[in-house]
Amino acid sequence: MANPQKLENGILVDLTPEEIAQAAADAAANVPPVPTFKLRASDFLLRFTEDERAAMRAIALDVPQFADYLMQLQTVQYVDVLDNIVPQAMDALIGAGIIDDARKTEILSPILGPTESLI
After folding, report:
1. What pTM did the predictor assign?
2. C-beta atoms surrounding 56 within 10 Å
């Protein structure tokens, strides 16, 4: 395999190991973060405010379907926000008046950096 080269004074010359390392570092620094939609269940719950979490526990006492959502959330290790059940549960929260569409969008947004625990 040929060494990486550069044009210097009209002549192709091999890059030095330092130039190769710098080019790799520059390329890595310019890679945009890949959105992640799967996060730890505990981190997913922390996307809700304390009041929202309290309201979810309260509504689960009267709405069996929502109690089931909470039970599933407590038994899984990770939540994939693209899984069909997650938006359904969020719609149930909207219907109960616990969150609105803007909060749903915020809560279901992908992770773009190291602010939350990734898998």
Report:
1. 0.66
2. 22
